[in-house]
Amino acid sequence: MTLIQATINHSHNNHLGEYSLVHSIEGRIRLRTPVLTKALQEQWAKRLMAMEEVKDYRFNVSASSMVITYQREISQDVFLNSLFLGYNSDKNGILLSKIASDSTSINNPTSDTASQNEECDRPSWSNLTLPLVSTGLAIVANRFPSSLITFLARSALITAGLPVATRAMESVFIHHKLNIDCLDLMALVLSGLQGKLLTPSLVITLHELGDLIREYTARSTEQKTASLLDTIGRFAWVEREGEIVQIKSDEVIAGETVIVYPGERIPVDGMVTFGEATVDQQQLTGESMPIVAQIDTYVYASTLVRSGKIKVKSERIGTQTRAAASIELLEKAPVHDTRMANYAAKVADKLIIPSMILAGIVFATTKDPTRTASILTLDFVTGIRVSMPTAFLGALNHTTRHGILVRSGRTMELLGEIDTIVFDKTGTLTEGNIKVVGVETVNDNITPHRLLQLAVSAEQRITHPVAEAIVNYGKQEKIEVLPRNSWDYSVGSGMTAEIDGLTVMVGSEKFLRSQGVNFAIIPENEDKLDVLEGLSFVYIACDGELMGYLEYTDPLRPESASLLYDLQNLYGLEVHLLTGDNQTRAHQVAKVLNIPPQQVHADAFPEDKAKIVRTLSRGGKTVAFVGDGLNDSVALAYADVSISFADGSDIARETADVVLMNNDLSSILEAIAIAKETQNLIEQNTMLVVAPNLIGLGFASTIGLNPLLATIIHNGTAIAAGLNSLRPLVQHQLETREN
């Protein structure tokens, strides 16, 4: 993604930070902000309302972005200049020229150097031009022989064969080994010396076709990792000489006091020394419920303060933080060759010496170069080089049609071989969002509707996941929200508010008990039963008397149970649950999904997840890992096959080998089924290629075989195997048309 960086005044009174233009169309732009706090929203709202050219704007707090619609008659560059002009200063203002030049690169991707280089590096079907020209001229020379056409055909053949010769020479003189190109070169030379043009031209064309298909199914080996500063936050508020100043997050000094406001990410690892706040750790640990950070609570960089304000004594800064350690692990993850395994090269390594010895014996005894060329032509390899990439190309196309992005043929191979699959919990097996699932009254003087109404009215506009879940449930049930008069919110514990003449308390059991509420009315067995079912509670009291409670949970995805059943019973896979959530909740989910307790791993930080995945892999297992967050990205990188969702975090999606574009977990079954079908197809192709070539080799070694017939066997089996590789894709297209 091309970003437009705008350097803004970073004083305490002008907390604007660094901005990125991430999307633009005529009359509309989307800017990403470092932290979209309430104060920053108000500041921008005043600015935008004062601009006549602005037609509309909206803020997206969760994405830290704002979308601005402006008059189309104004060019983007002019509007950007006008937008930031009010914040310009002589010492530290906006780099307007940078904005203008980078905005041009967004609207014109060809101006981006990296994009140009990437485009240049991609394989081109123009590589087939010379082999096809050589083949065409050879056919014409055979049909209409003339010195000019023959000369042109030989010249085209030599030119088309130069890459083969170059690779063969490099293999012999630089790498000191024989490879498939050496075998190809010898067969080409022998055929050429006999005046044959069509056979070597066809061989080159088929080989080039297979190589191109393989390249097009390859995934770039470059790992895209998250920027550390994007992860932990680019700026920090620190106390220096009695003043609060804003500095870059990696310039904080150990021991300094860092102040973190609502809506900001904690930029350092350290101990809370003042205040109380609700801290969302899901990005780092995967735990769905925020923690309440109080004095002496240890907090981590990259975690988000949802509400409250805290001061943190910094201990680890920048690259020393736990978040940085996760990114470093990701960058050091082994980068496999993601091109599909070149079985042709493996077969060639084993067949080159025997083929050369056999060809040498036949030539020594018969002095017949034709028979020798036939032996070298029947190399078993061309058919595999053509059919295998075609099989993978068809399989990758098949998965794409099912809403599954498989990035490489190598991934497709491994998908068919996995015997162990490890799942993250939050956002993977569960939906990742807290939801209210029940309303229970314990007092005859109140109805469930009234109980929910009081809870929704008390929790309105509170930035805590449970409070937001209550309000959302109220909207779903079409609850009328009552005015909330005086109120007092205890961070992470509960709310006390005056509503409809009542003193309403909403919060945890501990909070209500501290306010003198009696819980004897709730049967103890009922409470324990709900806990075992994975439910949590928020209680409601009116005027000091307990009225009832709401049940909430992070619900499982609808498809999770059936998926895990099929994986374990149909495919015989070993299923593990790996989560940063606590032991209790992890085992609750595992029990519902029938995952054995010994295969549940909880309280796992990103580096712990990577260690567990590596341990399973080193134990001889082929491991797939399924996750969706930053905290899963390291484990994704170390797994044999990594699977994520289209709506997962950017880094998880980029790291994953398989992306479920429709965000449906059950698509994993479809991907595995297609991978196993591809495995069977490759086995069929191998037999289709090897058997005829082996028979032909027997004839060529004994009674002799015409090189033309050897070429027909050699190339015919390659074409047949290639067509067989496309069969499932054709069948799927026919079935789609019928439906």
Please tell me about this protein's structure.
There is one protein chain. Helix content is 48%, strand content 19%. By secondary structure, the chain is an alpha+beta fold. Strands 6, 7, 8, 9, 10, 11 and 12 form a 7-stranded antiparallel β-sheet that branches. A 7-stranded mixed β-sheet has the order 13-25-24-23-14-21-22, with helices on both faces. Strands 15-20-19-18-17-16 form a 6-stranded antiparallel β-sheet. A hairpin with a 2-residue loop joins β6 (235-240) and β7. The model is unreliable at 1-17, 86-123, 218-226, 335-341 and 525-532 (pLDDT under 50).
Describe this protein with a few key phrases.
alpha+beta, seven-stranded antiparallel beta sheet, 25 strands, 19% strand
What spatial form do the alpha-carbon principal axes imply? elongated
Radius of gyration: 33 Å
Main beta-sheet annotation: 7 strands, antiparallel
Instruction: Give the strand content.
Output: 15-25%
In a few lines, what is going on in this structure?
The protein is of the alpha+beta class.
Which helices and strands occur, and which strands form pairs?
Blueprint: E1 5-7, E2 18-25, E3 28-32, H1 38-49, E4 54-60, E5 65-70, H2 76-85, H3 96-107, H4 113-121, H5 129-143, H6 147-173, H7 180-193, H8 198-216, H9 228-232, E6 235-240, E7 243-248, E8 257-260, E9 268-280, H10 282-285, E10 291-293, E11 298-299, E12 304-317, H11 322-331, H12 343-366, H13 369-377, H14 381-401, E13 404-406, H15 409-415, E14 420-423, H16 425-429, E15 435-441, H17 448-459, H18 465-476, E16 487-490, E17 494-499, E18 502-507, H19 509-514, H20 524-532, E19 536-542, E20 545-553, H21 560-569, E21 574-578, H22 583-592, E22 600-601, H23 606-618, E23 623-626, H24 633-638, E24 641-645, H25 650-655, E25 658-660, H26 667-701, H27 707-738
Parallel strand pairs: 14-21, 14-23, 21-22, 23-24, 24-25
Antiparallel strand pairs: 1-2, 2-3, 3-5, 4-5, 6-7, 6-8, 8-12, 9-10, 9-11, 9-12, 13-25, 15-20, 16-17, 17-18, 18-19, 19-20
Helix pairs in contact: 2-3, 5-6, 5-8, 6-7, 7-8, 7-13, 8-14, 8-27, 12-13, 12-14, 13-27, 14-26, 14-27, 15-26, 17-18, 26-27
